[in-house]
């Protein structure tokens, strides 16, 4: 536990809490139409998914990663988010470090990729991710889809 925050694997009991986190981030970071696909994702996880809980045990952030079947050696970060009222408190930083570290434990992973909106590319760039493609309005009006990648080198694998 760090600063009253615990990181643990997602369980089915966390479904409503994770959907509530999603809801706090609409419409700035997600569009309402993404809620159903997110729920389906949580009900059939393709890889590890983590939740961060505060000192009271409340889920305040969540996110995971999964192997990309179309590109061997690539892990995709999936559905990372922090409760809107908890933004800018270091929770996203703790979550991204945990997700990157988990992906790096797989020796076959050479690149970590994600897609996000223009509102969070700067956050991910601080951790070495680079924008590789932008689709204007790719998620919906005013919400661009930005593809990002972090290339790993041997020294980064521990």
Low-pLDDT residue intervals, each spanning 5 or more residues: none
Q: Calculate the mean pLDDT score and round it.
A: 92
Total of helices: 4
Structural class, by secondary structure, is: alpha+beta
Rg computed from alpha carbons, rounded to a whole number of angstroms? 15 Å
CATH class equals Alpha Beta
Question: What does this entry look like structurally?
Answer:
By secondary structure, the chain is an alpha+beta fold. The chain has a single domain (6-156), classed as Aminopeptidase. It contains four helices and seven strands; from the N terminus they run βααβββαβαββ. It has helices at residues 15-24, 35-43, 91-104, 121-125, and strands spanning 6-9, 49-53, 59-67, 74-82, 111-116, 130-140, 143-151. The chain has a seven-stranded mixed beta sheet with strand order 1-2-3-4-5-7-6, sandwiched between helices. Helix 1 (15-24) packs antiparallel against helix 2. The radius of gyration is 15 Å and the shape is globular. The two termini are 21 Å apart. The mean pLDDT is 92.
Q: In short, what is this structure?
A:
With 158 residues, the protein is an alpha+beta fold.
List keywords for this structure.
single chain, 158 residues, alpha+beta, Aminopeptidase, 7 strands, 34% strand
Summarize the SSE layout with pairings:
Elements: E1 6-9, H1 15-24, H2 35-43, E2 49-53, E3 59-67, E4 74-82, H3 91-104, E5 111-116, H4 121-125, E6 130-140, E7 143-151
Parallel strand pairs: 4-5
Antiparallel strand pairs: 1-2, 2-3, 3-4, 5-7, 6-7
Helix pairs in contact: 1-2
């Amino acid at each position: 536990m760090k600063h009253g925050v615990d990181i643990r694997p997602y369980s089915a009991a966390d479904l409503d809490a994770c959907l509530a986190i999603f809801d706090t981030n609409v419409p700035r970071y997600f569009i309402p139409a993404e809620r159903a696909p997110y729920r389906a994702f949580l009900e059939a996880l393709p890889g590890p998914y983590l939740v961060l809980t505060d000192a009271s045990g409340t889920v305040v952030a969540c996110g995971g990663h999964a192997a990309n079947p179309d590109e061997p050696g690539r892990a995709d970060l999936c559905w990372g988010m922090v409760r809107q009222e908890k933004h800018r408190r270091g929770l996203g930083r703790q979550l991204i470090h945990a997700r990157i570290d988990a992906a790096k434990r797989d020796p076959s992973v050479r690149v970590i990729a994600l897609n996000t909106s223009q509102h969070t590319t700067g956050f991910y760039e601080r951790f070495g991710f680079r924008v590789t493609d932008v689709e204007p309005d790719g998620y919906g009006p005013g919400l661009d889809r930005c593809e990002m990648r972090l290339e790993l080198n041997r020294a980064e694998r521990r």
